[in-house]
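Agenda item 2: iron/sulfur cluster complex prediction
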Amino acid sequence: MAKRLIYDLDFESLAAALAELDQPAFRTQQLWEGLYTHYFADFAQFSNIPKDLRDSLSAQFIIDPLRVQKSLLSQDGLTEKVLFALPDNLSIETVLMRYERRNSLCISTQIGCPMGCVFCATGQMGFIRNLSSGEILAQILHFMRKLKAEDQNLTNIVYMGMGEPFLNYEATMNSLRRLMDPRGLNFGARRITISTVGIIPKIEQFTEENLQVNLAVSLHTADDSLRSQLVPANRMFPLSKLIPACKAYTEKTHRRISFEYALIDGVNDSHEAALALSSLLKGMLCHVNLIALNPSKKYPLQGSPKAKIHAFSATLEEHGIPVTIRLRRGVEIQAGCGQLASAEKTNDNKINTLQ
Ligand code: SAH
Ligand code: SF4
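Presented output:
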């Protein structure tokens, strides 16, 4: 029987697994603490658990399914991108961004993505498979371990790596629950952001969850027909329906929603585009994050030059739309979404066999 990933289990399932091994209830808490407060990656580290139980557990479960395949550090040493191989030899990538007072991790939820946004390296890869909740968590735990060894902490987590989290909703939500569990990782909801291309039914479902987790929607343009070209999901979930769903989210949760906008030179960065965006978002409890497009293999257009980004930002500000210009990080290490994994052979081979 193949071993199960222990991070895939919630507290109750772990308790049930231990009950099957005739263990008393307190073992669940011990194991949970070892996994999620000490970040143990090996059963041998659980010194408060008897050796025979550790042996039975390691016969059934693996703790860390990730193998570092490649690790790249930006020239300034502040951005680190790791390409991980999973047990089925597929690859995912995770990016750590260090700032002065925070350490932010960008994690993947799928291998590839079926949404096919034209500028996105992950979209260009096609969809391969969903990650399990444990595979999502394993990326986080890898970096928590690493930062702990440096006497540092992970302060922010963004679900903005490979894949569309709302097309892998259950695993995403289960990873969130484990991340926020006060008995374990106890990570603050307000320091987590989930980014979606705009899957309306899932935005509605997420609204009902009433969590303190931040929601970001990747907008990229206020023009419906341009958006359908850039982000094919817009054909099914057009702006005329997406924006009301976003408004409903802010009204129900009283939380600010973020809109991601990748500025593409000559495509969506004109003064008119900024005006259209301002009027689309007028009156909404929101924040716009501008970032210059990262050129990718199959979409070699350029990100907007600095002057245009600043002009775009100024127009939004003049119209009362809160806006931040995000710096591109780790361009030289292909830190953009899916760029490293798509440069690797492993996943490409898999796509070829699937097609
Ligand atoms: N699928 C989700 C989350 C993963 S993509 C989503 O689309 O929101 C994370 C962010 O990276 C999105 O805002 C996406 O539009 C953006 N992105 C993808 N490719 C990019 C590129 N080449 N340059 C700049 N941003 C990019
Ligand atoms: Fe998928 Fe997001 Fe990339 Fe679009 S931008 S293809 S939704 S990962």
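Discussion summary: Residues 348-355 have pLDDT under 50 and may be disordered.
Owner for follow-up: CH.
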